[in-house]
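FYI - complex with beta-D-ribofuranose, inputs then prediction.
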Amino acid sequence: PQKIILDCDPGHDDAIALMLALASPELEVLGITTVYGNVALERTTHNALVVLEVLGRRVPVHPGADRPLVRERISAEAVHGTSGLAGPPLPTPSQQPQDLHAALFIIEQVERHPGEVALVPVGPLTNLALALRLRPQIAPKIRQIVLMGGSVDLGNWTPSAEFNILADPHAARIVFESGVPLAMMGLNLTHQAIAHPHWVARFRGLGNRAGTFAAELLEFFREHHQKRYGWDGAPIHDACAVAYLVRPELFQTKPLHVAVETNEGLCFGRTVCDYWGVTGKPPNCRVGLRVDPEGFFELLLERIGNH
Ligand code: BDR
Ligand code: CA
């Protein structure tokens, strides 16, 4: 199986990403690293442990950055609730977080398994940037980075920028300039993966604890997206990054050059995707363009049903 480290800020869709990763035999989750993002680091770390508790699984959780490199911290309680996982009842975790910082854990694992570890960041990219700056020698040893963030077109936190990239544009720039093989699942793709009520009903119908938990998360997550976008469901952004590793054939991608705007203007945090190759710069990223929503949700259902 592909060794991965899931770097997350749970978060409703992060929780679903975690459930998919831990139920997929194609993947070996070496550990979970947490970052501030949707809510503060203490909460995202707690929430990762909550999800493990729901699943009855033990996986090391390494907390990392509690703030961005340069800019001030932003957060998304408006989308995910004050807990970050609003909706279902949240059990008390029986596991403790690890002492080793997320960035150091990433370095340790990449050096232990050179060329074998895929990093899957689905929150702000601060932990990855810290790891790459602390130990630049790891870059050629990272198999690939498959991230949820950015967009070929519209933003969601500003008209230009997506939340994860806007939360730490400087960290994102370090990652996009790292030379590591990258795949980006941005909003242009994740907005095709909307959990409409008939999908949510099927999660509930799975009848296991994970299925019920997923359904309750998705019901809450839907409300914000209904109000803001008029959509009858929420996009399961983060699970797209994991699904890409499990079932790449569900995705259509295109190699593009992607740069991150770090000037603090209207486009701060934008992923500037050179779709037509007008810059002449070589592609540094496989950019997700299409996902098959049926295939994606059937995969989620099958795997979450197996928990
Ligand atoms: C991203 O922002 C967060 O709110 C979600 O968890 C996802 O990672 C979408 O813009
Ligand atoms: Ca996230």
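Residues 187 and 203 are 23 Å apart (CA to CA). The chain has twelve helices and twelve strands.
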